[in-house]
Amino acid sequence: MAEYALELGVSPGHLNALCRETLRRSASRVVRQRLTLEAKRLLAYSDLTAAEVGFRLGFEDPAYFARFFRREAGQPPTAFRARATGRPVTSA
Questions:
Q1: DSSP at 58
Q2: First to last CA, the chain
Q3: What residue numbers bound the domain in which 25 lies?
């Protein structure tokens, strides 16, 4: 959050307070939701691998991205893609 706050010219605490006041969510929750939304978009509308999607979104470890996505979306990236595109899950 510190990097986002710095870019916006506010303190991390103030950024969090603003998000809670206006969006009824913490700043970190807003960022997680936005990352998840972008990951879903990339998985559904691109041919990038799940690892490439993770790298594009700033995750350095593909396994961490997969855990993040599963926690936030309720399913692994490959399962989400299969449902979104109608294509079966294939092993690499």
A1: T
A2: 35
A3: 2-85
